[in-house]
Amino acid sequence: xxxxxxxxATGRPVYLIDGxxxxxxRARGKPGPFLASDLAFQAGRALLARQPFEPEHFDQxxxxxxxGGPNEANIGxxxxxxxxxxxxxxxxxxxxxxxxxxxxxDCAAQDIASGRSELVLAGGTESMSHAPxxxxxxxxxxxxxxxxxxxxxxxxxxxxxxRPAMLKPVIGLLCGLTDPIVELNMGQTAEELAWQFDxxxxxxxxxxxxxxxxxARAQKQGHLDEIETLYDSDGRYYESDDGLREDSSMDKxxxxxxxxxxxxxxxxxxxxxxxxxxxAWLVMASEEAVERYDLPVLARVVDTQWAALDPRRMGLxxxxxxAPILQRHGFDSGDIDVWEINExxxxxxxxxxxxxxxxxxxxxxxxxxxGFTPIDEDWLNVDGGGVSLGHPxxxxxxxxxxxxxxxxxxxxxxxxxxxxCIGGGQGGAMLLERVDA
Length: 437
What we know:
- The protein has 15 helices and 16 strands.
- By secondary structure, the chain is of the alpha+beta class.
- The protein has a domain at 184-223 and 300-434: Peroxisomal Thiolase, Chain A, domain 1.
- Strands 1, 2, 3, 4, 5, 12, 13, 14, 15 and 16 form a ten-stranded mixed sheet that branches. A two-stranded antiparallel sheet has the order 6-7. It has a two-stranded antiparallel sheet with strand order 8-9.
- Strand 10 and strand 11 (237-238) form a beta hairpin.
- Helix 1 packs across helix 2 and helix 11 packs parallel to helix 12 (346-356).
- The protein is globular and about 75 Å long.
C-alpha cells in the first residue's frame, strides 16, 4: 500500500465548530413519522439558531443521503432552503452508501482547505423506513403500454395481458442493502468475516450487549447532548435514540435465530445494526471564519482517507482506510485516544479489530511490515454504536465524527479516529484533534 500525501496537510486548517443530530428512531415495519428532509431540517434548526452568524453566511450546504424520497431530489438544496440559508447559498447532495455523511464532511473539508469556502454546513440524513416500494419492470412496461394505447380495442388488448404476478413489489431497502456485483447482502458479507476470522456467536452477542449497555449509560449520564428533540405533525415528540434495549441479555440474544445464513449462520437481528431514521449536521469553518465570528472550536480535521477492497469483505473497510492515516503520521494505535468504528454488524467490528493487529493480513492486504498494536476497546464506541442506536446510512458518518469530537472534550483527550465500512467494498476514515479555546 503506497502512502499518499495527506490532502489536508498543505491547505488551510479546517475546524469543526458545532453540531447536532436528531434522535435515531428505529423503523417499525411501516413509514416513520419523518421524511429524510424533515429529519435534517429539525436537527439543523436549533443548531443554526444558536450560531452568531446568519444561515445566509454559509458558503455552501452539503448533505449525504442514499435514498431520498421522490419529492426530495437534491435533498441538500431542499433542506438548505427550509433552514433559511437563502437562495444564494448553493447546496448539493452526496452519496457514498454507508459513508455518505462522512463524504459530505470530507467535501467540506477539502473546499475549506483549498480556500474555496470559509463556512460550510455539512452532514447526512436518512429515513430508511421510507425506502421506496416499487413496481417491477413487467408492471411498469404494462402501465406504459396501457398509457400508449389509443383505441378501445388496443386498451382491451393491453388489459387482457395483465397478470397478478406483475404486482409483486420490489423492496427498495433490500435492493439497496445487496451488492449487485457479488450478489451478497450486507449481512452475508458479515457472515463471510465471521467465518474468515473465526468469530463466535457468543463474541458477537457479547459485543452487541455491550453496545446497548454503553448507550444506556450514556443516556443516563447525559452524554448525548448533541441530540435535538423532534416534533411530529401529531404533536408527539422524540428526544432520545429509541433502539436501546435496556433489558437485553446474553440469554435473550442467544435465542435469536440467524437471519442471513439459515440455519447455520451467526449474524442475527440482535447483533446487527438496526434499520433506523436519523440525521446529523456539523458546522465547519476556516481559521478566518473562526476569527470573524468569534466561533468556539470542537476539533480540527487532521486527515481523511478513502479505501477500497473486495465487496465480499466490505466490513473490513475501516482497516484499509485507517491504516494509511496512521502510517502517514507515524502513529500506532496508542496515539489515538478515542475510536468510533461504525457498528454495521458486531461481526464486522470484531473482524476489523482482529485484522488490525494481524501481521499476515496487514502485510498481504495493506503492504505493511506487520499489524498494529490492539485498539483499546475501552475507548472504542464508548457510548454505544449502530447495534444499539441504529445506522441510518446517510447520517452515520456525520454522527460518529460529531460524537468523537464531543468525547474528546468530555474526556480531555487529544485525538480521535472515526471510520465506517461501506457497502460495495470501501472504507472511509477521518482523524480529528481537539482544539483548546
